[in-house]
Amino acid sequence: MLPDSIAGRTMIVLLIGLTLSHIASTWVLSSDRHDTLIETSERLCADHIAVIAHLIERASPQDRGAIVGGLGGALTEITLSDQPKVGLIHQDEEELSLMQTALQPYFGAVEHPRLHVVHHRTESGEQAGFWRNLAAGFPHDRIMQVSFQLESGTWVNFDMAMVRAATLWSPHAALSTLVMMVAVLVFGTWATGWVGRPLATFATAADRLGRDVNAPRLPEGGPREVRRAVAAFNEMQSRIRRFVEDRTQMLAAISHDLRSPITRLRLRTELLPEGEGRDKMLRDLDEMETMVASSLDFARGEAVDETTETIDLAATLEAICDNAADMGLAAEFEWERRLVCACRPAAIKRALANLIENAARYGRQAKVRAHATDQAVEVVIEDSGPGIPEAELDKVFGPFYRVEGSRNRKTGGIGLGLTVARGIIRAHGGNILLQNRQEGGLRVTVTLPQEGVP
To answer: How far apart are CA 53 and CA 379, in angstroms?
Structure first.
């Protein structure tokens, strides 16, 4: 599975690419070193054989045995015979020509029948075992076998070990690759973290913008591309803030300006003779005033100028339930412990008050409980009312939407309470969920994310 982060995937690409490049470079260098080493070894062995052959040629037949015995050793075996030890088969004509070139200063042009040359490759670690051979790169030795006929007709035979051939796979090559991989991991981790830090900053800023359009602007620093992206993000934030402020101010202004004509209509209506028509007009004016007041509350809920503070949410919930009880509503809070919550106190109190009073007023009673998780505070409000049809659970958050039945204007409300509550909660980066309980009634679950709150 590929890593989920850009830094992790970049590290994989760097590690694989540089490792393959390092192995290819090692192979090229090892091949060049191998060819050079073998060629040098062959020339040295040919010169050594030519010198020894010249010494034996110049020595008397009685002294040749002593020379052969004295010059032979662990790496060089020299024998004299009447027949060549090496057959007249050559693996490579270059092997023969190299030996002829070495013998020419001492014997002149040497014809092919007088000179037999063959190279053998032997595995030097056959008894070492597989793992030791693997660690050593399966080493092998090269042996030059030469049979040369002297002027007297005697053949001098040479078995001479050459320099061990270099292999690509060796402990040094493996160590070099390992050091390179460690270096890539160390410096690559730092580099990808440095390059990816602006993306993490953007993600944090975007999440913060969803909660607070008045959040501080991002500092415009870093490479040119990052500065351009930061400038565009800051401009987008400014446009969103202006849009929200203009809409909120317009709604508040309209609601405020409607109060004056409504007040004049009420005064004129109260001067009318008492009757059914006058009472209906007064009820309509009451409803209009309620709508205006609710619209102002909605506009205030959209405003996010309030400073975020750390409060005890349990104490706030208990105060809301006490106020609802003072109003004659059945509201009960199940106190467990202190709940530390970072929020805009007045806004969150207005949202929770709307939900609790709504449950107590339309659902006969409100039972409230709250608890904290690792990253959020969760508030659950349950009532014993008729609930809400499943098809309308999401529609009730729309402005001025009312559910028929017990939740209608005859019992108060114009359909903005849930809209205001959800707007405030979402401005905190949280969410609100409505569910019908199996035993009857409605369950409202409010989730408020918390970061860095003890």
So the answer is: 102
Fill in the DSSP letter of residue 130: H
Phi, psi of 56 (to 5 degrees): -65, -40
Is 131 a residue whose pLDDT tops 60?
A: no
Contacts by 28-31, CB closer than 8 A, 24 or more apart: 30/166, 30/167, 30/168, 30/173, 31/168
Give residue 294's pLDDT: 67
Cα–Cα dist 400/417, whole Å: 9
Residue 223's closest CA among 251, 245, 195? 195
What's the number of CA atoms in the CB half-sphere (13 Å) around residue 58? 8
Query: Percent of the chain beyond pLDDT 70?
Result: 81
Instruction: Report the 10 Å Cβ neighbour count for 426.
Output: 15
Q: Can you tell me the mean pLDDT for 47-52?
A: 90
Residues 421 and 351 sit within 8 Å (Cβ to Cβ): yes
C-alpha to C-alpha distance for 284 and 409, rounded to whole angstroms: 11
Q: CA triplet 36, 41, 43: central angle to 5 degrees? A: 100
Residue 230 one-letter amino acid: V
Q: What is the bridge-based pairing of β-strands 331-334 and 366-372?
A: parallel
Question: Reduced to 3 states, what is the DSSP secondary structure of residue 289?
Answer: helix
The pLDDT value recorded for residue 165 is: 58
448 vs 432: CA distance, rounded Å: 9
Query: How many whole angstroms separate alpha carbon 309 and alpha carbon 345?
Result: 7
Nearest to 222 by CA among 212, 235, 209, 233: 233
Contact, 200 vs 180, CB < 8 A?
Answer: no
Give the CA distances from residue 423 to residues 165, 313, 433, in Å, rounded to whole numbers and listed in that order. 77, 19, 13
CATH number for the domain formed by residue range(s) 212-305:
1.10.287.130
- Taking the domains of the chain in order of start, what are their residue ranges? 6-177, 212-305, 306-449
| Residue 304 reports pLDDT greater than 70 | no
Local structure of 99: helix, strand or coil: helix
Where does 137-223 have alpha helices with state H?
Answer: 171-211
pLDDT in tens, 370-427: 988 878 899 999 998 888 888 888 888 877 666 654 444 444 555 667 888 888 888 8
The CATH code for residues 306-449 is 3.30.565.10
Distance CA 65, CA 74 (A): 17
368 pLDDT tier (thresholds 50, 70, 90): very high
**Helices and strands (H and E) in the chain: how many:** 10, 11
Largest alpha-carbon pair distance within the chain? 159
Sequence letter at residue 102: A
Helix (H, G, I), strand (E, B) or coil at 378: strand
